[in-house]
Specification:
OB fold (Dihydrolipoamide Acetyltransferase, E2P), alpha+beta, DNA_ligase_ATP-dep_C, about 15% helix, six-stranded antiparallel beta sheet, about 270 residues, DNA ligase (ATP) activity, ATP binding, D-amino Acid Aminotransferase, Chain A, domain 1
């Protein structure tokens, strides 16, 4: 880990050289101050030590969410509220370039927090019981809720399943860019019930075309291109030009003209 992210050796100085086991996340922060998963991918995985230029271009930071042990003392049984206090006490540098303890709120509703996240293009929130002990893995005491953007995108192809009678496995979705070209932006395989998969197949099968309607070439095994006639609402986590939507999910067909679809705003 220190080989891939050598700058994070500064975390030790941020906690005064104390021995600690912390729970957190490594993020790459953009010029707007927001973490970017796409930027982080430029740093991970690395088979060799990153260059000084890459470290300058894509700096990383450790966000510490929780403390498990301090100076050899196990504190996982302490309430979360107390562990947060201890985490704050361990930090000896308020403005460390390599480590941050994100703020937490106890008097704001989850709905309001999600609104703030959406307004600032953040990924979501984690709600934790203040009296909860630390438990690895999933727990009802800690609930993660993601903010997801949506876009209305043209269905330009699909990959069928082997189900009898025909069923859609994956949808290929596209939209028009500023130059007026229809470009692929995602492959969507979740969010569809079995009934909806069969319905989509019946809609798309009669309008299959021999060639891709896309401006940007794309190949995938088993793709059946279709005339861009239907528009679906797609929820997703993030979009970066030149890549596909991150974690897309189908929400349903929409009565929108294909000509009105637009490539999503980049993250």
């Amino acid at each position: 880990m220190s080989r891939t992210f050598p700058e994070l050796a500064g975390v030790r100085a941020a906690i005064g050289g104390r021995r600690a086991i912390l729970d957190g996340e490594i993020v790459a922060v953009g010029s707007d101050g927001r973490p970017s998963f796409t930027r982080l991918q430029r740093r991970w995985p690395q088979q060799r030590r990153p260059s000084a230029e890459l470290i300058r271009e894509v700096p990383t930071r450790f966000l510490a969410f929780d403390a498990l042990a301090i100076d050899g003392v196990d504190i996982t049984g302490e309430p979360y509220g107390r562990r947060r206090e201890i985490l704050g006490e361990v930090m000896v540098v308020d403005t460390s370039p390599t480590m941050t303890v994100p703020r937490h709120w106890v008097d704001v509703s989850p709905a309001d927090m999600l609104d703030v996240c959406a307004a600032n293009a953040m990924e979501g929130i984690v709600a934790k019981h203040l009296d909860s002990p630390y438990r690895p893995g999933r727990s009802a005491l800690w609930v993660k809720t993601m903010v997801r953007a949506t876009a209305e995108l043209a269905i330009v192809g699909h990959i069928a399943t082997h189900a009898a009678g025909g069923s859609v496995g994956t949808l290929l979705v596209a939209a028009y860019d500023e130059a007026g070209d229809l470009r692929l932006v995602g492959q969507v395989g979740t969010g569809m019930s079995q009934r909806e998969r069969r319905r989509l197949f019946k809609l798309l099968d009669p309008i299959e075309v021999p060639e891709s309607p896309l401006r940007n070439p794309h190949t995938a095994p088993g793709v059946r291109w279709v005339e861009p006639r239907y528009v679906g609402e797609i929820a997703f986590r993030e979009y970066t030009p030149g890549r596909l939507l991150r974690h897309p999910s189908y929400k349903g067909l929409r009565d929108v003209a294909v000509a009105d679809t637009r490539v999503p705003t980049p993250a």
